[in-house]
Design a protein that fits this description.
Layout (H helix, E strand, L loop, with lengths): L1 E3 L16 E5 L3 H13 L3 E5 L2 H11 L3 E5 L7 H10 L8 E5 L4 H9 L4 E4 L4 H39 L10 H18 L3 E8 L2 H8 L1 H18 L5 E6 L2 E7 L3 H16 L2 E4 L2 E4 L2 E7 L6 H17 L5 E3 L2
Helix pairs in contact: 2-3, 7-8, 8-9
Amino acid sequence: MKTETLKGGADATRADGGAPIILVADDEPVNLALIRRRLEWEHYRVETAEDGGQAVEAARRVLPDLVILDVMMPVMDGLQACRLLKADPATRDIPVIFLSALDDTDTKVRGLSLGANDYVSKPFRVEELLARVSVAIRLKLERDRLRQRAEELRRSAEAASEMSMTDALTGLLNRYGLHRALQRELSEARRYDRPLSCLLIDIDFFKSVNDTYGHAAGDTALQQAARVITESVRGSDVVCRYGGEEFLVLAPETGLEGARALADKIRQSFAARLFGEGAHVFPLTLSAGAAQLATDESGNDMIARADEALYHAKQTGRDRVEAAG
């Protein structure tokens, strides 16, 4: 295997900013040297191979932008090499140009049917080969740019979708994110006949925090509350900001007693710390309602029952947990 590279780049450049790479495979040293030299003059990076097996190995290693294959080569001919390149997901999109002294129609048809992009008969005019190379490279790089752009758009769409499901203040799921998570957990609970519970949590007398310390202190307290809840639940539980100072926890594979215990753990974590920052720190308590998904009940019905239990907790003194019967 012989490798030649040229400093600098072609007029067209790869996504990484480098010059296009062309792999040339030919068992005739004179032809190989001629093609390599003329491609280098056009500022392409060139790698060479002397048979089809070397060509396939080199293509998999360097992932060139174009492969030029002589049809008749020892060890492995160009047709077999093309077949292997097109069967490999890593190399199948690399364009292939065949060179051959065999000018019969059957050979050309076989080469093109294997996925080759072009076919040049020997002896050839160098200018014609360079023109065909230029077209193949231009199309390949444009296709690469379109794929890269499509991937960037896909990632942007995923990021936008994630942002649309996330509460900007706390980083938790919002109502839309909750809806998606609830559908998923509900489906899992039904499919595998597993329990599913939810907690609806409300910070007691939170309006007085905003009235006394200002909305900035209130926002800080909400962020801290989100962290307390997140740190108190299991990794499989889903936490969302339900609205205002309300939070909702989905607890898969958890019955009502387990949900009540989890809510009380969160309540105690609240009571054990101060919220706010700097000169403005204050205690907070919470009230919570717990409910377990009933047979043939919707997720929204479960949440509504947890809300009723939460209301009962507030009516009976706050800083407590009530479970829906």
